[in-house]
Design brief:
Distance between the termini: 38 Å
CATH architecture of the largest domain: 3-Layer(aba) Sandwich
CATH class of the largest domain: Alpha Beta
Low-confidence stretches: none
Number of strands: 10
Number of domains: 2
Strand content: 15-25%
Helix content: 25-40%
Radius of gyration: 19 Å
Order of helices and strands: EEEHEEHEHHHEHEHEEHHHH
Structural class: alpha/beta
């Protein structure tokens, strides 16, 4: 079921610098979407439209079948349902402590201090950083800042969470911890969409992908189908995921049945031995 759509979005930054060009995109409830493209393709600009931070020159954003408006009340309601976590967590963390930062959104929704405190505790626990509640954000590690920023978005209890390059700058352990936390949020019913230029991450973790370049969505569909299309990948200046390439070779050699799903991770491909 479609929950959030971009329909024919067009946008240019001051100076007539094009960013989005007649872009269509669909986010389906319960289906993790990777918005995949090279740096500078316009992925972040798209996310800023999907939560109402930027307003398109033309086109519209549709949430549960209703076109979104840009009045103060419309934007407040929109952002309660569609959360956004930026690539640089420092752009979102500004309070004296992690708990104060995470409570900012709920308090601005008009919740009581007790209600906000409950949401903060739940969000910090979900991100595995409850012990950091009183720590100043500037004393957190890079990965802890990422999880604190996500907790701030989660305290608003959105239906959809948009993440800009969520694993950028994280080491392997940090990436594993973050992806596990996001999987836990999905299990609670949150729909995830994230931007990345990492084809291996997209193939390993996404149900669907959008190939994105020069402000346009070149293709959208199941990860296994779209990321196996070499001509589409070349048009988006991307390569085929390593595990997918090995999986296709294994299928060709009869190691994987034609109707069996392909391995998504290195561990799964190694298990074929």
């Amino acid at each position: 079921m479609t929950v959030l759509e971009a329909r024919a979005l067009t946008y240019a930054y001051p100076g007539e610098i094009p960013a989005l060009s007649d872009l269509d995109l669909t986010i389906r409830r319960g289906r993790r979407l990777a918005i995949l493209g090279p740096n500078g393709a316009g992925k972040t600009t798209l996310l800023l439209h999907l939560n109402g931070t930027l307003r398109p020159s033309s086109g519209r954003v549709v949430l549960d079948g209703a076109e979104m408006g840009y009045s103060r009340s419309d934007l407040a309601a929109w952002r309660r349902r569609v959360g956004l976590v930026l690539q640089d967590a420092d752009d979102q963390l500004f309070a004296a402590s992690v708990a104060e930062d995470v409570s900012f959104g709920p308090l601005n929704m008009g919740l009581t201090e007790a209600e906000a405190r409950e949401r903060v505790e739940q969000a910090l626990a979900a991100m595995g950083i409850a012990a950091l509640a009183e720590r100043p954000p500037h004393m957190l590690s890079f990965g802890q800042k990422k999880r604190a920023a996500i907790a701030g978005a989660m305290a608003m209890r959105p239906d959809i969470l948009l993440l800009d390059e969520p694993t950028a700058g994280l080491d392997q352990r940090g990436s594993v911890l973050l992806l596990a936390a996001l999987a836990a949020l999905e299990a609670r019913g949150v729909t995830l969409a994230f931007t990345t230029h990492d084809v291996d991450l997209a193939f390993a973790t996404a149900d669907e992908v959008v190939l994105f370049d020069n402000g346009k969505a070149l293709a959208q569909g199941p990860a296994e189908t779209v990321l196996a299309n070499r001509s589409l990948l070349e048009a988006a200046h991307l390569r085929m995921p390593f595990v997918l390439e090995l999986g296709l070779k294994a299928r060709k050699r009869g190691l994987i049945a034609p109707d069996a799903p392909l391995p998504r991770t290195r561990e799964e491909i190694m298990a074929l031995d």
